[in-house]
Amino acid sequence: MPVTELNSSAATTRLSAAFQAPAARPPIWLMRQAGRYLPEYRETRAEAGSFLDLCYNPRLAVEVALQPLRRFDLDAAILFSDILVIPDGLGQPVRFDEGVGPVLMRLEDTADFAPLSLERMRAHLAPVYETVDRLRAELPRDVSLIGFSGAPWTIATYMLEGRSSREFTLGKYWAYARPEDFRVLVEILVEAVTAHLSAQVEAGADVLQLFDSWAGVLDDWGFRTWVEAPIRAIVGKLKARHPKVPVILFARGAGARFAGLAARTGVDAVALDCTVPLAWARETVQSETVIQGNLDPAILRIGGPAMERAVADILAAWASGRFIFNLGHGILPDTPPQHVAALVRQVRGA
Ligand code: 1CP
Questions:
Q1: What is the chain's Cα-based Rg?
Q2: For the chain, which terminus, N or C, has the lower number of CB atoms within 10 Å?
Q3: Domain containing 55: what range?
Q4: pLDDT tens digits along 126-182
Q5: Which atom of ligand 1 is nearest to the CA of 150?
Q6: CA-to-CA distance for 207 and 337, rounded, in angstroms?
Q7: Would you say the CB of residue 168 lies under 6 angstroms from ligand 1?
Q8: Does residue 2 belong to any structural domain of this protein?
Protein backbone atom coordinates (compact mmCIF):
# COMPACT_ATOMS: atom_id res chain seq x y z
CA MET A 1 0.00 0.00 0.00
CA PRO A 2 1.44 3.44 -0.87
CA VAL A 3 2.54 5.50 2.12
CA THR A 4 -0.09 8.15 1.45
CA GLU A 5 -2.87 5.62 1.98
CA LEU A 6 -1.42 4.59 5.31
CA ASN A 7 -1.26 8.18 6.47
CA SER A 8 -4.77 9.16 7.54
CA SER A 9 -3.85 12.85 7.59
CA ALA A 10 -3.40 12.69 3.82
CA ALA A 11 -6.73 10.98 3.15
CA THR A 12 -9.84 12.93 2.19
CA THR A 13 -12.49 12.85 4.88
CA ARG A 14 -15.99 14.28 4.88
CA LEU A 15 -14.84 17.52 6.46
CA SER A 16 -11.58 18.00 4.61
CA ALA A 17 -13.56 17.75 1.36
CA ALA A 18 -15.33 20.99 2.34
CA PHE A 19 -11.96 22.76 2.11
CA GLN A 20 -11.71 21.92 -1.58
CA ALA A 21 -15.13 22.83 -2.98
CA PRO A 22 -18.69 23.55 -1.81
CA ALA A 23 -20.57 20.31 -1.08
CA ALA A 24 -24.08 19.59 -2.34
CA ARG A 25 -25.05 19.55 1.34
CA PRO A 26 -22.70 21.05 3.93
CA PRO A 27 -20.96 18.68 6.33
CA ILE A 28 -22.08 18.99 9.95
CA TRP A 29 -20.55 18.51 13.39
CA LEU A 30 -21.36 20.35 16.62
CA MET A 31 -19.15 22.01 19.21
CA ARG A 32 -19.48 20.06 22.49
CA GLN A 33 -21.30 17.27 20.64
CA ALA A 34 -20.14 14.91 23.40
CA GLY A 35 -21.30 15.99 26.84
CA ARG A 36 -23.83 16.27 29.57
CA TYR A 37 -26.93 16.62 27.33
CA LEU A 38 -26.49 12.88 26.57
CA PRO A 39 -27.56 10.46 29.34
CA GLU A 40 -24.93 7.93 28.18
CA TYR A 41 -22.24 10.62 28.67
CA ARG A 42 -23.42 11.23 32.24
CA GLU A 43 -23.15 7.48 32.87
CA THR A 44 -19.60 7.17 31.52
CA ARG A 45 -18.62 10.36 33.33
CA ALA A 46 -19.83 8.84 36.63
CA GLU A 47 -17.80 5.70 35.93
CA ALA A 48 -14.65 7.77 35.27
CA GLY A 49 -14.72 9.76 38.51
CA SER A 50 -13.56 13.30 37.88
CA PHE A 51 -13.83 15.12 34.55
CA LEU A 52 -10.05 15.06 34.05
CA ASP A 53 -9.98 11.34 34.91
CA LEU A 54 -12.33 10.95 31.96
CA CYS A 55 -10.07 13.05 29.69
CA TYR A 56 -7.03 10.94 30.63
CA ASN A 57 -8.73 7.54 30.28
CA PRO A 58 -8.40 6.55 26.60
CA ARG A 59 -10.99 3.76 26.77
CA LEU A 60 -13.66 6.04 28.30
CA ALA A 61 -12.67 9.15 26.32
CA VAL A 62 -13.05 7.17 23.08
CA GLU A 63 -16.44 5.94 24.28
CA VAL A 64 -17.81 9.45 24.96
CA ALA A 65 -16.40 10.84 21.71
CA LEU A 66 -18.24 8.11 19.77
CA GLN A 67 -21.56 8.45 21.64
CA PRO A 68 -22.92 11.36 19.53
CA LEU A 69 -21.97 9.56 16.29
CA ARG A 70 -23.98 6.49 17.31
CA ARG A 71 -27.09 8.65 17.70
CA PHE A 72 -26.68 11.21 14.92
CA ASP A 73 -25.42 11.19 11.32
CA LEU A 74 -22.47 13.54 11.96
CA ASP A 75 -19.51 14.00 9.60
CA ALA A 76 -16.83 14.31 12.27
CA ALA A 77 -15.86 13.15 15.72
CA ILE A 78 -13.94 15.54 17.97
CA LEU A 79 -11.33 14.32 20.41
CA PHE A 80 -12.80 14.24 23.90
CA SER A 81 -10.52 16.39 26.04
CA ASP A 82 -10.45 19.99 27.26
CA ILE A 83 -8.51 23.14 26.49
CA LEU A 84 -7.18 23.15 30.06
CA VAL A 85 -5.16 19.94 29.72
CA ILE A 86 -2.37 22.25 28.50
CA PRO A 87 -1.79 24.06 31.83
CA ASP A 88 -2.41 20.77 33.63
CA GLY A 89 0.27 19.12 31.46
CA LEU A 90 2.72 22.01 31.74
CA GLY A 91 2.68 21.67 35.52
CA GLN A 92 -0.09 24.00 36.72
CA PRO A 93 -2.59 21.42 38.04
CA VAL A 94 -6.26 21.91 37.06
CA ARG A 95 -9.31 20.66 38.93
CA PHE A 96 -12.95 20.85 37.81
CA ASP A 97 -15.30 21.54 40.74
CA GLU A 98 -19.01 20.75 40.45
CA GLY A 99 -20.98 23.97 39.93
CA VAL A 100 -17.79 26.08 39.78
CA GLY A 101 -15.83 24.90 36.75
CA PRO A 102 -12.05 24.87 36.40
CA VAL A 103 -9.90 25.76 39.42
CA LEU A 104 -6.14 26.40 39.12
CA MET A 105 -3.51 27.81 41.48
CA ARG A 106 -3.08 31.04 39.57
CA LEU A 107 0.26 32.23 38.21
CA GLU A 108 1.12 35.42 40.10
CA ASP A 109 4.49 36.45 38.72
CA THR A 110 6.94 35.66 35.94
CA ALA A 111 8.83 33.41 38.40
CA ASP A 112 5.76 31.12 38.27
CA PHE A 113 6.28 30.63 34.49
CA ALA A 114 9.72 29.02 34.92
CA PRO A 115 8.59 25.57 36.12
CA LEU A 116 6.17 25.16 33.20
CA SER A 117 7.64 22.34 31.13
CA LEU A 118 6.91 21.22 27.59
CA GLU A 119 8.61 17.91 28.24
CA ARG A 120 6.34 17.29 31.18
CA MET A 121 3.33 18.17 29.07
CA ARG A 122 4.23 15.69 26.31
CA ALA A 123 4.49 12.86 28.84
CA HIS A 124 1.42 13.92 30.85
CA LEU A 125 -0.75 14.13 27.74
CA ALA A 126 0.28 10.72 26.31
CA PRO A 127 -3.22 9.31 27.18
CA VAL A 128 -4.80 12.09 25.09
CA TYR A 129 -2.74 11.10 22.04
CA GLU A 130 -3.59 7.47 22.67
CA THR A 131 -7.27 8.48 22.63
CA VAL A 132 -6.78 10.08 19.19
CA ASP A 133 -5.05 6.95 17.92
CA ARG A 134 -7.79 4.64 19.18
CA LEU A 135 -10.53 6.92 17.87
CA ARG A 136 -9.00 6.92 14.39
CA ALA A 137 -8.99 3.12 14.44
CA GLU A 138 -12.67 2.99 15.51
CA LEU A 139 -14.05 5.55 13.05
CA PRO A 140 -15.07 4.82 9.46
CA ARG A 141 -12.28 6.08 7.17
CA ASP A 142 -14.30 8.91 5.68
CA VAL A 143 -15.46 10.33 9.03
CA SER A 144 -13.20 13.19 10.09
CA LEU A 145 -11.40 13.22 13.40
CA ILE A 146 -10.97 16.74 14.74
CA GLY A 147 -8.07 17.45 17.07
CA PHE A 148 -8.20 20.69 19.04
CA SER A 149 -6.49 23.04 21.43
CA GLY A 150 -7.26 26.24 23.21
CA ALA A 151 -5.44 29.26 21.79
CA PRO A 152 -2.84 31.11 23.92
CA TRP A 153 -5.00 34.09 24.97
CA THR A 154 -7.95 31.96 26.15
CA ILE A 155 -5.73 29.43 27.97
CA ALA A 156 -3.73 32.28 29.56
CA THR A 157 -6.88 33.84 31.04
CA TYR A 158 -7.47 30.65 33.06
CA MET A 159 -3.80 30.39 34.07
CA LEU A 160 -3.76 33.99 35.34
CA GLU A 161 -7.26 34.21 36.84
CA GLY A 162 -7.19 30.69 38.32
CA ARG A 163 -10.79 30.11 37.17
CA SER A 164 -13.49 31.15 34.71
CA SER A 165 -13.79 34.90 34.55
CA ARG A 166 -16.40 37.47 33.63
CA GLU A 167 -14.29 40.60 33.54
CA PHE A 168 -10.83 39.18 32.75
CA THR A 169 -9.30 41.66 35.19
CA LEU A 170 -6.02 39.80 35.64
CA GLY A 171 -5.69 38.61 32.04
CA LYS A 172 -6.20 42.17 30.80
CA TYR A 173 -3.82 43.57 33.43
CA TRP A 174 -1.02 41.36 32.09
CA ALA A 175 -2.03 41.91 28.45
CA TYR A 176 -2.05 45.70 28.65
CA ALA A 177 0.07 46.71 31.68
CA ARG A 178 2.85 44.12 31.47
CA PRO A 179 3.00 43.14 27.80
CA GLU A 180 6.68 42.13 27.90
CA ASP A 181 6.09 39.79 30.84
CA PHE A 182 2.85 38.48 29.33
CA ARG A 183 4.72 37.75 26.10
CA VAL A 184 6.90 35.25 27.97
CA LEU A 185 3.82 33.23 28.91
CA VAL A 186 2.28 33.54 25.45
CA GLU A 187 5.51 32.28 23.85
CA ILE A 188 5.47 29.23 26.12
CA LEU A 189 1.85 28.64 25.08
CA VAL A 190 2.65 29.02 21.36
CA GLU A 191 5.17 26.18 21.73
CA ALA A 192 2.81 24.10 23.89
CA VAL A 193 -0.19 24.48 21.56
CA THR A 194 1.94 23.68 18.49
CA ALA A 195 3.37 20.55 20.15
CA HIS A 196 -0.08 19.48 21.37
CA LEU A 197 -1.71 19.85 17.95
CA SER A 198 1.20 18.21 16.10
CA ALA A 199 1.01 15.21 18.43
CA GLN A 200 -2.71 14.90 17.67
CA VAL A 201 -2.07 14.96 13.91
CA GLU A 202 0.65 12.35 14.32
CA ALA A 203 -1.84 10.20 16.26
CA GLY A 204 -4.46 10.47 13.49
CA ALA A 205 -6.39 13.78 13.64
CA ASP A 206 -7.09 15.05 10.11
CA VAL A 207 -8.63 18.47 10.90
CA LEU A 208 -7.68 20.85 13.74
CA GLN A 209 -9.68 23.52 15.56
CA LEU A 210 -8.27 26.29 17.74
CA PHE A 211 -10.65 27.61 20.42
CA ASP A 212 -10.08 31.27 21.29
CA SER A 213 -13.36 31.58 23.13
CA TRP A 214 -12.45 34.86 24.86
CA ALA A 215 -10.92 36.60 21.81
CA GLY A 216 -13.82 39.06 21.75
CA VAL A 217 -12.99 40.79 25.03
CA LEU A 218 -9.79 42.44 23.74
CA ASP A 219 -9.45 45.85 22.07
CA ASP A 220 -7.99 46.28 18.59
CA TRP A 221 -4.33 46.24 19.68
CA GLY A 222 -4.97 43.39 22.11
CA PHE A 223 -6.68 41.30 19.45
CA ARG A 224 -3.84 41.79 16.99
CA THR A 225 -1.14 41.19 19.60
CA TRP A 226 -2.58 38.38 21.72
CA VAL A 227 -5.02 36.63 19.38
CA GLU A 228 -3.76 37.06 15.80
CA ALA A 229 0.02 37.09 16.26
CA PRO A 230 0.29 33.95 18.44
CA ILE A 231 -2.18 32.07 16.21
CA ARG A 232 -0.24 33.10 13.10
CA ALA A 233 2.93 31.72 14.75
CA ILE A 234 1.21 28.43 15.67
CA VAL A 235 -0.31 27.97 12.22
CA GLY A 236 3.03 28.73 10.53
CA LYS A 237 4.77 26.04 12.58
CA LEU A 238 1.95 23.55 12.02
CA LYS A 239 1.86 24.14 8.26
CA ALA A 240 5.62 23.51 8.06
CA ARG A 241 5.08 20.06 9.62
CA HIS A 242 1.62 19.14 8.39
CA PRO A 243 0.81 21.25 5.33
CA LYS A 244 -2.31 19.27 4.41
CA VAL A 245 -4.17 19.41 7.71
CA PRO A 246 -6.81 22.18 7.69
CA VAL A 247 -7.01 24.46 10.73
CA ILE A 248 -10.31 26.03 11.82
CA LEU A 249 -10.22 29.08 14.10
CA PHE A 250 -13.04 29.77 16.57
CA ALA A 251 -12.34 33.32 17.75
CA ARG A 252 -15.60 34.03 19.52
CA GLY A 253 -16.76 37.65 19.47
CA ALA A 254 -14.31 38.82 16.80
CA GLY A 255 -17.12 40.80 15.12
CA ALA A 256 -15.88 42.95 12.22
CA ARG A 257 -12.44 41.38 12.71
CA PHE A 258 -13.73 38.13 11.19
CA ALA A 259 -13.12 39.91 7.86
CA GLY A 260 -9.58 39.10 6.75
CA LEU A 261 -8.93 36.95 9.83
CA ALA A 262 -8.02 33.85 7.79
CA ALA A 263 -5.46 35.80 5.75
CA ARG A 264 -3.99 37.45 8.86
CA THR A 265 -3.58 34.16 10.75
CA GLY A 266 -3.10 31.58 7.98
CA VAL A 267 -6.02 29.38 9.07
CA ASP A 268 -8.13 27.48 6.53
CA ALA A 269 -11.56 28.19 8.01
CA VAL A 270 -13.19 30.67 10.35
CA ALA A 271 -15.87 29.56 12.82
CA LEU A 272 -18.45 32.32 13.24
CA ASP A 273 -20.34 32.94 16.46
CA CYS A 274 -24.13 33.35 16.68
CA THR A 275 -24.24 37.13 16.41
CA VAL A 276 -22.55 37.39 13.00
CA PRO A 277 -24.93 38.71 10.31
CA LEU A 278 -25.44 36.04 7.63
CA ALA A 279 -25.37 38.22 4.50
CA TRP A 280 -22.36 40.20 5.74
CA ALA A 281 -20.44 36.99 6.44
CA ARG A 282 -21.26 35.58 3.01
CA GLU A 283 -19.93 38.66 1.26
CA THR A 284 -17.01 39.45 3.53
CA VAL A 285 -15.75 36.21 5.07
CA GLN A 286 -17.03 33.31 2.93
CA SER A 287 -15.70 35.08 -0.17
CA GLU A 288 -12.16 34.63 1.20
CA THR A 289 -12.28 31.39 3.24
CA VAL A 290 -14.33 28.42 4.44
CA ILE A 291 -16.83 29.39 7.14
CA GLN A 292 -18.31 27.30 9.94
CA GLY A 293 -21.29 28.05 12.18
CA ASN A 294 -23.40 29.58 13.54
CA LEU A 295 -26.73 28.33 14.97
CA ASP A 296 -27.38 29.72 18.45
CA PRO A 297 -27.19 26.79 20.94
CA ALA A 298 -30.14 28.39 22.78
CA ILE A 299 -32.21 27.96 19.60
CA LEU A 300 -31.13 24.31 19.35
CA ARG A 301 -32.37 23.88 22.91
CA ILE A 302 -35.74 25.45 21.98
CA GLY A 303 -36.08 23.31 18.84
CA GLY A 304 -39.31 23.24 16.77
CA PRO A 305 -40.30 25.98 14.31
CA ALA A 306 -37.88 28.52 15.82
CA MET A 307 -34.99 26.19 15.03
CA GLU A 308 -36.33 25.30 11.58
CA ARG A 309 -36.47 28.99 10.69
CA ALA A 310 -32.94 29.69 11.98
CA VAL A 311 -31.43 26.66 10.20
CA ALA A 312 -33.22 27.52 6.94
CA ASP A 313 -31.82 31.07 7.13
CA ILE A 314 -28.26 29.80 7.62
CA LEU A 315 -28.55 27.27 4.79
CA ALA A 316 -30.06 29.85 2.43
CA ALA A 317 -27.24 32.30 3.13
CA TRP A 318 -24.23 29.99 3.21
CA ALA A 319 -24.86 26.52 1.76
CA SER A 320 -23.96 27.47 -1.81
CA GLY A 321 -20.42 28.37 -0.74
CA ARG A 322 -17.66 26.62 1.18
CA PHE A 323 -19.34 25.91 4.50
CA ILE A 324 -19.37 23.54 7.49
CA PHE A 325 -22.59 23.56 9.51
CA ASN A 326 -22.09 23.99 13.27
CA LEU A 327 -23.33 25.96 16.24
CA GLY A 328 -22.03 29.41 17.14
CA HIS A 329 -20.91 28.03 20.54
CA GLY A 330 -21.10 24.71 22.41
CA ILE A 331 -24.28 22.65 22.99
CA LEU A 332 -26.01 23.57 26.26
CA PRO A 333 -26.26 20.75 28.85
CA ASP A 334 -30.08 20.85 29.00
CA THR A 335 -30.56 20.44 25.22
CA PRO A 336 -32.99 17.62 24.32
CA PRO A 337 -31.08 15.08 22.16
CA GLN A 338 -34.08 14.81 19.79
CA HIS A 339 -33.51 18.46 18.81
CA VAL A 340 -30.02 17.51 17.66
CA ALA A 341 -31.49 14.64 15.61
CA ALA A 342 -33.98 17.06 14.00
CA LEU A 343 -31.21 19.55 13.25
CA VAL A 344 -29.06 16.94 11.50
CA ARG A 345 -32.08 15.76 9.44
CA GLN A 346 -32.83 19.31 8.33
CA VAL A 347 -29.22 20.04 7.33
CA ARG A 348 -29.12 16.73 5.42
CA GLY A 349 -32.29 17.78 3.63
CA ALA A 350 -34.18 14.68 4.78
O1 1CP B 1 -18.90 18.01 34.07
C2 1CP B 1 -18.51 17.77 32.94
O3 1CP B 1 -18.83 16.70 32.36
C4 1CP B 1 -17.58 18.74 32.30
C5 1CP B 1 -18.18 19.57 31.23
C6 1CP B 1 -17.10 19.76 30.16
C7 1CP B 1 -17.01 19.08 28.93
C8 1CP B 1 -17.95 18.03 28.40
C9 1CP B 1 -15.97 20.62 30.25
C10 1CP B 1 -15.62 21.47 31.42
N11 1CP B 1 -15.21 20.47 29.10
C12 1CP B 1 -15.80 19.53 28.28
C13 1CP B 1 -15.27 19.01 26.99
C14 1CP B 1 -14.75 19.94 26.00
N15 1CP B 1 -14.35 21.24 26.26
C16 1CP B 1 -14.51 19.67 24.62
C17 1CP B 1 -14.67 18.32 23.91
C18 1CP B 1 -16.05 17.85 23.71
C19 1CP B 1 -16.80 18.23 22.47
O20 1CP B 1 -16.64 19.30 21.87
O21 1CP B 1 -17.61 17.39 22.06
C22 1CP B 1 -14.04 20.86 24.05
C23 1CP B 1 -13.71 21.09 22.59
C24 1CP B 1 -13.94 21.82 25.09
C25 1CP B 1 -13.40 23.17 24.90
C26 1CP B 1 -13.42 24.14 26.01
N27 1CP B 1 -13.23 23.95 27.36
C28 1CP B 1 -13.52 25.54 25.80
C29 1CP B 1 -13.63 26.20 24.44
C30 1CP B 1 -14.99 26.11 23.86
C31 1CP B 1 -16.05 26.94 24.56
O32 1CP B 1 -16.98 26.33 25.06
O33 1CP B 1 -15.92 28.18 24.54
C34 1CP B 1 -13.45 26.18 27.06
C35 1CP B 1 -13.52 27.68 27.33
C36 1CP B 1 -13.26 25.16 28.05
C37 1CP B 1 -13.03 25.36 29.50
C38 1CP B 1 -14.02 24.62 30.33
N39 1CP B 1 -14.17 23.26 30.31
C40 1CP B 1 -15.18 22.88 31.15
C41 1CP B 1 -15.66 24.07 31.79
C42 1CP B 1 -16.77 24.12 32.81
C43 1CP B 1 -14.93 25.14 31.27
C44 1CP B 1 -15.06 26.61 31.65
C45 1CP B 1 -15.94 27.37 30.71
C46 1CP B 1 -16.06 28.84 31.11
O47 1CP B 1 -15.10 29.43 31.63
O48 1CP B 1 -17.15 29.41 30.88
A1: 19
A2: N
A3: 10-348
A4: 999 999 999 999 999 999 999 999 999 999 999 999 999 999 999 999 999 999 999
A5: 29
A6: 25
A7: no
A8: no
Strands 94-97 and 101-104, sheet pairing: antiparallel
pLDDT at position 10 is 45
* Predicted local confidence at residue 134, as pLDDT: 98
Instruction: Give the atom of ligand 1 at the shortest distance from the alpha carbon of 36.
Output: 3
Known catalytic residue: 41? no
With respect to residue 279, please indicate whether it lies within any of the assigned structural domains: yes
Question: Is 158 tagged catalytic?
Answer: yes
Name the stretches of the chain with pLDDT < 50.
1-10
The number of distinct structural domains making up the chain is 1
| Other Cβ atoms within 10 Å of 78 Cβ, number | 23
Could you say which of 14, 41, 75, 82 is catalytic?
82
83 lines ligand 1 (CB under 6 A): yes
Give the CATH number for residue 171: 3.20.20.210
User: Is the Cβ atom of 42 under 6 angstroms away from ligand 1?
Assistant: no
Residue 283 lies in a domain: yes
The residue from 25, 36, 71, 106 that is catalytic is 36
